[in-house]
UniProtKB/TrEMBL annotation:
Keyword Flavoprotein: yes
Organism of provenance: Amphritea pacifica
Protein name as annotated: UbiH/UbiF/VisC/COQ6 family ubiquinone biosynthesis hydroxylase
Pathway given in the UniProt record: Cofactor biosynthesis; ubiquinone biosynthesis
Swiss-Prot/TrEMBL cofactor(s): FAD
Length: 419
């Protein structure tokens, strides 16, 4: 086997998390290959993104935290995202549709310019594709799949067989190919998973009133409904999590009927819902890998864990994974140790597994709390939300952690101390 068939790192999946890892390792000196099963045009990602603008907004958006902004800045992508399209949001209004509980978070109370940014997933991906294309140490291969993955040899290297017939060897393979990761399966890593009993409908809607640069979330009797502001003040991206039967019925409505149903469910906080783009629906399941690493292998992002979207933390957790794994690899290379060994890669697992499990447990707790018709829990959650709204120090501490301004964060995710 020739030297050309060997590389240091293979990242399977050119989504936001996999591309972020590659971009963060630009100066590591490692040879990196990215494998992507989709047929995308990596040679001109910006033109690809701009061509999509004419078709409106991407129905899939992410509420990126300050910590994620720092990671993407370190990856060299945030500057491009700013030049494309993003929406800083200044406030968040959350209320219980089955009671009187409500809470509002406002960036002014924290003396911050915003709480975070709503960014279309394809914008983030386009910026990262451009960044990766400029890296001398990185190659991107599209329309190719991983078919076989060997067990590690004595040096923790693995052999990969690709759908194009190529056979390569890598010091480490990273699964970043989503919730149904074939790479994770080939590595023999099992999952804990269960169905949330929810389907999520996503689309872009136009409303009579301005979105007020605010994220809105109402907890309905069937699940949470979120309106996320877009740069056009009368447009919002929605995520409506509800029962499978209700989601099916909503998807069968025509546009006018759906707009009416959506407006009622949202209590018409933004006035009449005037129109909607194409709707998409997908089931929600919680998943968590039983382990993140083996010798010569690591799983990040949705390949390692998925959670309910009610707090919008899925992509942010994945970006923290990418930052933590990049730091683990960079530190290992600098120290001259076997950075691809299971012993060393466990540093990444220790840094992220407990954080991700804690967030998953929190989301499950929220879902259960707001999915009960028992009057006592409903009374407690309403009084609790209203009380928390009056306790500014406690409320601000919670929102600072959600923004990624405090807590156990990778170095690359920490904002520099301001003068």
């Amino acid at each position: 086997m020739t030297q050309n068939n060997e590389t240091d790192l293979v990242i399977v999946g050119a989504g936001m998390v996999g591309l972020t890892l590659a971009a963060l390792l630009a100066d590591s000196g490692l040879r990196i290959r990215i494998l992507e099963s989709r047929e995308i045009d990596p040679a001109n990602a910006l033109a690809w993104e701009h061509s999509q603008r004419a078709n409106g907004y991407d129905p899939r958006v992410s509420a990126l935290t300050v910590a994620s902004q720092q990671v993407l800045t370190a990856a060299g992508a945030w500057q491009q995202i700013e030049q494309m399209r993003l929406m800083p949001y200044r406030a968040m209004d959350v209320w219980d549709g089955e009671g009187s509980g409500a809470i509002r978070f406002d960036c002014a109370e924290l003396h911050e310019p915003c709480l975070g940014h709503i960014v279309e997933n394809r914008v983030t991906q386009a910026a990262l594709l451009n960044r990766v294309q400029g890296q001398e140490n990185c190659e991107l291969f599209v329309a190719v799949r991983l078919q076989e993955l060997s067990e590690p040899d004595a040096d923790a290297m693995r052999t990969l067989t690709l759908s194009n017939g190529e056979v390569i060897r890598a010091r480490c393979v990273v699964a970043a190919d989503g919730a149904l990761s074939n790479t994770r399966r080939l590595a023999g890593i099992g999952m804990w998973e269960w169905d949330y009993g929810h389907h999520a409908i996503v689309t872009t809607v136009a409303t009579e009133k301005s979105n007020q640069a605010t994220c809105w979330q109402r907890f309905t009797e069937d699940g949470p409904l979120a309106f996320l502001p877009l740069p056009d003040p009368h447009l919002s991206s929605i995520v409506w999590s509800t029962s499978p039967d209700h989601a099916k019925a909503l998807m069968e409505l025509d546009e006018a009927e759906f707009c009416q149903a959506l407006g009622r469910a949202f209590e018409e906080r933004l006035g009449v819902v005037q129109q909607t783009d194409q709707r998409f629906v997908f089931p929600l399941r919680q998943r968590h890998a039983k382990q993140y690493v083996k010798a010569g292998f690591a799983a990040i992002g949705d390949a390692a864990h998925t959670i309910h979207p009610l707090a919008g933390q899925g992509v942010n957790l994945g970006l923290m994974d990418a930052a933590a794994l990049a730091e683990t690899i960079i530190d290992g290379v600098a120290d001259g140790v076997a950075w691809n060994s299971e012993y060393h890669l466990r540093r990444f697992q220790r840094a992220r597994q407990s954080e991700n499990l804690q967030m998953a447990a929190t989301m499950e707790g929220f879902k259960r709390l707001f999915n009960t018709h028992n009057p006592l829990p409903r009374l407690l959650r309403n009084s609790g939300m209203s009380l928390l709204n009056t306790l500014a120090p406690v409320k601000n501490h919670i929102v600072q952690q959600a923004m990624g301004l405090s807590g156990n964060l990778p170095r690359l995710a920490r904002r520099p101390v301001r003068d």
